[in-house]
Amino acid sequence: MELVFRVLGPLRLVGPTGEVTLSAGRERIIMAQLVLHANRVVSAERLVDAVWGLGAPQTARTQIQICVSRLRRVLGAAGLADRIATVDPGYRLVADPDEVDLLVFDREVSATLHTIRQCTDIVDVAACVAIARSALGLFTGEPMADVSSEVVQARARQISQRRLHVLTACLEAQIAHGHAADVIDEIAVLITEHPLNGRLRGVYMKALQRLGRRADALAAYHDAFLEYRERLGVGPDPELRQLNETILRDMSHENEAVDEAVAARPGVVPFAEKPAQPHGILLKPTLNRVLVPVTKTHHSEVRPEEFRRLRRFLSAKHTPGPCPVDGPVIVSVSGPRGLCKTHFAISAAVELASDFPDGQLYQSLRAGSGRAAGLDAVLAALLRTLGVPDVAVPRLLDERLALYGSLLNGRRCLLILDNAIDDRQLIPLLPRGRDNAVIVISRLPWGSSLATHRLQLGHLGTDASLRFLAQLVGAERVMAEPEAAKELAELCAGVPFALVALAWRLNQRPGWPLARCARFLRDESTLLDRLCLEAFDVRGSLRADYDELSPPAQLLLRRLAPWGRRCFSPAVVDDLLDPEEGAGAEAIDELVEMRIVEVCPEGDSGPERYRSVGLTRLLVLEPPLSEELLPGPALGEFAAAGHTGLLPLTDSCLCPVPAGDD
């Protein structure tokens, strides 16, 4: 079937009798919105927002109707009659999925990405890369670059990020299977287009390394360093730094090996003697980790109570008196994505450096594409951090474990293990001896079962969000507009990552009043679009947490989304899920554990009640997740009664909102 509606490039509509010409800017905006939401209803309010933003005239709805009538005429002239249907509360574009390039692209890449990431079979990976590359060929330019609408352009940026993600996955697979020479020039061009994409720069350095061009790889890192410093005021991503250090060590050790080989030849006098460095010398590594695009952010001030608890946990082993357990204190820091768990732990480690004079070590336990890193690779990285040269890192896993244990024995170090997926990753890495301490950072609801202490991070309150925002954009700016700053903090719903994205936008526009930014972000239907930037994918972080939920919990979350932040009782949960006994209780417990739903403060009397927190509910209100908010029969009844997917509020299930809540 031929493509009819194209948005992966300039907006283009082609019917059986010819191409559709749209000269008016408003009509292009409305048509783009309809294609982006093909086969789904787009409300008139959303079309008004896309066309005029905050400056909509009183006649906006009438003008939308006029534009839609014109669109119907030009589509009919091209053989596309009856493609725009009027459906309360707006309009729907009727299209076969094979007629819309965006739907074709999503379908093709969704079916191949998993194989590209996980499969080791060269033939299968090559076939999937070919399919993904073919889907990428649907792009004819920047998505909808000819459509002048901030709402449309926000979605266009999201599509471009998706395209770059798919393309980068293909490039990584091609490099891993020996085709670095075929893609090296393509990567160089992409870096000029996306200079702040750390993953892309890492792919470029790995390709150069595979081709034996390590000096060029180091030069590429230097370019990245200068670009990040100039644009953001910080150094490159930690993965890039680690890759750069690995390449430097490899080159240094090879040079040493050459010098030793030359010195061993008869009659050759070595240029200089190098003192031997025993493997037991422990370097004092810096954490070298910056997660926000500003300096001097201190989570001890943002989360003072959590920081005090963490410090108390870590100092427990160093208090006078015998210790009953011959092992390190293990503190588990857990919580969903977006809460800056890693930055919190590293900030604490920096401030507690004097308590661990032999060093603080950071190591991620995640490899590319979210997979768990292999134990051998993790140990090799830790040994290098501890000062072991590459040539002295044992090849056998048992020998690496033995050397790692001997280096930490008798030391006083703080080890941060990030992105822990399960306890099996942790057990071999836990040092012996009571003087070491370990912080395990995990998204598991209750953290590691090995932990002697657990610290669960939740969403920030309004005051804590304001303190964090003041660190990010400057206290003077926040104090100058306290009400607007409070509204911005509440719009970010206590999600630190969203506050970081907001701060990046504000720091790029130092002349913007905070009140103007608040008006810009006030519409919840476009809030995630406006918080998603190239370096801060807030929506992607929320989607990853959603994907890890069980199907019943996902279904419950979708059906709870229209309630907003209002409190609800267990009776609501039972009404929204199948009446099978215990299904609703298990689903709501999972959402509470994942910090997507919280238990409301107890009143004087009455049953336990809940409310949604964070920004995940905005994600599930977006298509395609919003397609099933309520059970089919109930949805029909509510629509007939004038509701739009929102469960009617009754005294039996709706609890009063505590004072001070939205």
The gist of it:
The chain is α/β, with parallel strands linked by helices.
Task: Give a verbal description of the structure.
- The protein has 662 residues and is an alpha/beta fold.
- It is 50% helix and 8% strand.
- Strands 8-9-10-7-11 form a 5-stranded parallel sheet, with helices on both faces.
- A hairpin with a 5-residue loop joins strand 1 (5-6) and strand 2.
- Helix 1 (25-36) packs across helix 3 (60-77) and helix 7 (180-193) packs antiparallel against helix 8 (198-210).
- It is globular.
- Residues 268-281, 288-296, 318-324 and 631-662 have low confidence and may be disordered.
What is the count of β-strands?
13
Q: Count helical runs.
A: 28
Residue runs with pLDDT of under 50 for 5 or more positions: 268-281, 288-296, 318-324, 631-662
Q: Hey, roughly how much beta strand do the residues contain?
A: 5-15%
Mean pLDDT: 78
Alpha carbon gyration radius? 28 Å
Distance between the termini: 49 Å
Class inferred from helices and paired strands = alpha/beta
User: What overall geometry do the principal axes of the alpha carbons give?
Assistant: globular
As laid out across the biggest beta sheet, the strand order is: 8-9-10-7-11
Largest β-sheet summary = 5 strands, parallel
- Percent helix, as a range, is 40-55%
Jot down its keywords:
single chain; 662 residues; three-stranded antiparallel sheet; globular; 8% strand; five-stranded parallel sheet; 28 helices; alpha/beta; disordered C terminus; 13 strands
